[in-house]
Amino acid sequence: MSADIPAHCYRNPVNWLAWGFGSGLSPWAPGTCGTVVGVVVYMALMALPLGTYLLVVLLMAVFGVWLCTHTANQLGVHDHGSIVWDEIVGVLVALVAAPAGWLWILAGFCLFRLFDIWKPWPISWLDSHVEGGLGIMLDDLLAGVYAAVLLQITSLFLLT
């Protein structure tokens, strides 16, 4: 158990979702651990038709606003490091319509983590100016969009 998380929070299953099924409780690189969970979720969803995949990701993002708000309020911290639902959904955005193969999944993973950590503008602005679950989700969704665009551009040059 993390010393800065109140004991009662561990009994709430909603928090376990926000913590990426516990991956966000890792003492090392919780955001990266949450992103790994996102890749596992991606592998379960990648065979869906594109429209269905996008709908699932949209629903997860909307749900994530509520989920992250709830857990942040329980923890008393705006964007506690253990909250990784945003990374899970962000990497799903990064991998939208990704070409088949492990190399592309790994590239999407790495690009998402790069943009999520680096936070180029306007991701950095969103991260510091938008509060609550919406703020927690938005910067990762935009990092996912940046990663998806770069992944698609790269695939155009390498696969055509």
Automatic annotation (TrEMBL):
State the top-level EC class: hydrolase
Which coenzyme or cofactor does it need? Mg(2+)
Report whether Zinc shows up as a keyword of the record: no
Q: Is Transmembrane helix given among the entry's keywords?
A: yes
Could you tell me which SUPFAM superfamilies the record lists for this protein?
Answer: YutG-like
Name the CDD domains for this protein. Answer: PgpA
- Pathway linked to the protein: Phospholipid metabolism; phosphatidylglycerol biosynthesis; phosphatidylglycerol from CDP-diacylglycerol: step 2/2
Any single GO molecular-function term of the entry would be: phosphatidylglycerophosphatase activity
**Residue intervals of the YutG/PgpA domain:** 16-153
Signal peptide (residue range) = none
Compartment(s) where it occurs, according to its Swiss-Prot or TrEMBL record: Cell inner membrane
Which PANTHER family does its entry note?
PHOSPHATIDYLGLYCEROPHOSPHATASE A
Would you tell me the protein name for this molecule?
Phosphatidylglycerophosphatase A
